[in-house]
Amino acid sequence: MLYKNTLTFAQQLDKEDILSKFQNHFHLLKKDDKHIVYLCGNSLGLQPKNVKAAIDQELKDWAELGVEGHFEGKNPWMYYHHFLTEKAAKIVGANESEVIIMNNLTANLHLMMVSFYRPTKIRYKIMMEASAFPSDQYAMETQARFHGLNPDDAIIELKPRDGEYLLRTEDILAKIYEHKDDLAIVMLGGVNYYTGQAFDMQAITKAAHEIGATAGFDLAHAAGNLQLQLHDWDVDFAVWCTYKYLNSGPGGTSGVFVNECHGNNPDLVRFAGWWGHDEKERFKMKKGFIPMQGAAGWQLSNAQIIPMAIHKASLEIIDEAGIENLRKKSILLTGYLEFILNDFSQHLTIITPKNKDERGCQLSIIVKKDGKKLFDYLQTKNIMPDWREPDVIRMSPVPLYNSFEDVYRVGEAMKEYFN
Ligand SMILES: *Cc1c(COP(=O)(O)O)cnc(C)c1O
Ligand 1 mean position to 256 CA, how many Å? Predict the structure, then answer.
């Protein structure tokens, strides 16, 4: 696409955009009645308008039915997770039985590690990104300790080459082969939260399997952002949160993928709870855990109806838009942002990959001088990116509710700042 940095051009793209109507499904932010260009959908997605009615429905059933809501409610709570898995599975490229919505992200990461990180004396190492999202670092560190290992020895950190910001796929694969005898698991983000780099999950999984390790991914920044094919890529497990690109509210629920080759193995070690127990037997209150087939067999507790009601409503919107359409628009929209930002290349560097296959919505920018000052200035111009220590401005135009005109406005504000 040949982009132009003009308002007419941006508005023309908005006119041609088949997803532009989805803006109306969200509460867009305003200040003094002026539109705010929200670029933080990678951190907390905006609120879909249908969420309120979805919550009200559950509150009504609770108020009117009490405990009977489990069976008599409009969406019987007893089976609530079933209402989410089909649409969630489409988003990550999985069979329905490979996905379960439950808990929160970091808790689910630990649960998956319990099953998929089974270190032996020889094969005990965890490979992850250096400077991964802190929660993932703490999770891996304490998983190593849980098995009596020293994290400094057990964790292999992937670092970019000197002077580079990104990890090269060839270097990741080489590191996996280098550790062919002692690597137990590769656990990476699908998209790095800081750089916006999307990893080649298929190639990484294949290499891990070749040397006898497992591969799991934290898709916090990938779910609802990239087109994922977890099943076809043969990924062992994945976890994601639902409040970033999936717009399901602060602290919202989380998703888990367990490849069916593991999900139907009742002997796979896990930490269990009654909601993961065979549904037909659940209320017989008997001794002896019999897991449900598939990812559902990792559930612990009865469903958290309110966060799941939000997610259900949000999934309906994403499903209607279609992840393929969203990705198509996202490539155009982020490409447009990149085009606009390139006008300021003497002042800033975009560290996110230029290749569209190696990124999603987000562009991460390092400003050569006083990045925080530019960030603060943009806020005063009703543009809301986010700031990540030590020196990055992240901007994520989201195809569901950001427009090409939004992106054009970013360029206008930057012009005022730099000129
Ligand atoms: C957002 C994010 C988290 C947050 O974890 P919660 O358990 O949902 O608080 C963890 N890891 C990554 C990679 C993230 O991007």
Answer: 13
- Measured distance CA(63)–CA(57) in Å, rounded: 10
- Contact residues of ligand 1, CB 6 A cut-off: 104-106, 133, 135-136, 189, 193, 218, 220-221, 241
How large a percentage of the chain has pLDDT more than 70?
100
Please enumerate in sequence order all residues whose Cβ is within 8 A of that of 165, keeping only pairs 6 or more positions apart, or say none.
195, 351
- Distance in angstroms (rounded) separating the CA atoms of residues 319 and 317: 5
- The one-letter code for the residue type at 138 is Y
177-180 long-range contacts (CB < 8 A, ≥24 apart) are 177/207, 177/211, 179/125, 179/127, 179/211, 180/211, 180/212
For residue 171, the model assigns a pLDDT of 98
Q: Which residues contact 12 (CB under 8 A, 6 or more apart)?
A: none
**Structural domains of the chain in order of their starting residue, each with its CATH number:** 7-47+323-418 (3.90.1150.10), 55-319 (3.40.640.10)
Rg (CA), the chain: 22
CA dist 167 and 132 (Å) reads 12
> Which atom number of ligand 1 is nearest to the Cα of residue 109?
7
Alpha-helical regions (H) of 66-104: 69-72, 82-92
Residue 49 has which token pair?
């308008």
Six-digit token string for 325: 């359409």
Supply the pLDDT for residue 1: 83
Q: So what's the pLDDT on residue 193?
A: 95
Question: Please, what is the average pLDDT of the chain?
Answer: 97
Distance 16 CA to ligand 1 centre (A): 35
For residue 162, the CA-to-ligand 1 centroid distance in Å is: 27
Where are the extended beta strands (E) located within 259-376?
Answer: 348-350, 363-367
Tell whether the model's pLDDT for residue 285 goes beyond 90: no
Are the beta carbons of 392 and 371 closer than 8 angstroms? yes
Predicted model pTM:
0.97
Sheet with 348-350, edge to edge strand ranges: 348-350, 363-367, 392-395, 386-388
Residues in a beta bridge with 309? none
Which atom of ligand 1 is the closest one to the Cα of 189?
A: 13
Q: Which residues pair with 189 in a beta bridge?
A: 218
Contacts for 156 with CB less than 8 Å, ≥ 6 apart: 125, 126, 127, 128, 175, 179, 183
